[in-house]
Amino acid sequence: MATVTRAPRPEWLKVRLPSGENYFRLKGILRGLSLNTVCEEARCPNVAECWGQGTATFMILGDVCTRACGFCAVKTGLPRYLDREEPARVAEAVSAMGLAHAVVTSVNRDELGDGGAAIFAATIEAIRSRCPETTIEVLIPDFKGSRASLEAVLTARPDILNHNVETVPRLYKRVRPGANFAQSVELLRRVKEIVPGTVSKTGMMLGLGESTAEVVAVMRELASDAAVDVLTLGQYLQPTPEHLPVVRFVHPDEFRELARRGREIGFRHVEAGPLVRSSYHAANQVPV
Questions:
Q1: What is the CATH number of the domain that holds 36?
Q2: Tens digits of per-residue pLDDT, 124-164?
Q3: Where would you tag: which of 23, 138, 217, 285 has the fewest CB atoms within 10 A of its CB?
Q4: Burial per residue of 44-58, b for 16 or more beta-carbon CB atoms within 10 angstroms, e otherwise
Q5: 99-120 exposure pattern, b = at least 16 Cβ within 10 A, e = fewer
Q6: CB-CB contact of 64 with 33 (8 Å)
Q7: Residue 4 lies in a domain
Q8: pTM beyond 0.90
Q9: What is the residue range of 231's domain?
Q10: Distance from chain centroid for Cα 31
Q11: What's the number of domains the chain is made of?
């Protein structure tokens, strides 16, 4: 049987291994409170930089996802437990870490009637109560298109509501088999309809086989039809040999050009680069 080898990463994608006193301090806080982070679960390449600066993205609703996206390293299965004490522990961690900006995301919990929206809302409220000066960003799943679930999260008043479209419509069946592009765009469109003034945000991974024309078309739809404020663009990296392969490595110059075009199209802020992920430099995206 032939051995399949992955193409070596170019120089601009090499990152340092996690280390340093602050990294291990944060790891200790999170472990002590039995909390998960997407930084570790999704094998984010920026974990050393972000944890070294004292920031982290909390992953609530457990560490088992009900979907099996082709790009994601988070475990897939049927979750058997809903931890209703988790919001209080997240707030305790935000306080212990001294965060000025907290990011909260989750696995998909399609087996729950509200998709986990009530836990998102409770987490926002717990952070607000304990750390009133901390700004809050939530990166939510699609809640299977439920307007009521989206309203529940927005009523808790996060500063930024993020939902990633991840890729272009043509690649959805392969990349996000349990999701629907139009449904995700509609979710983003509803944000300002439900709570005007909320900053909306989305992100895409490049290098999965999309064309530049497709990316620009999606950018135009997100900016014009959904009035999205913030866009992140990053390089897809294959987490394990079982996940989707990288079709190509996008050069940093291409990311810079897409960022320029994004600002021209109408996004208030575009964060684009090979190592950019949803929460990268997230604190800089909160309106002053």
A1: 3.20.20.70
A2: 999 999 999 999 999 999 999 999 999 999 999 999 999 99
A3: 217
A4: bbbbbbbbbeebbbb
A5: bebbbbbbbbbbebebbbbbbb
A6: no
A7: no
A8: no
A9: 18-285
A10: 21
A11: 1
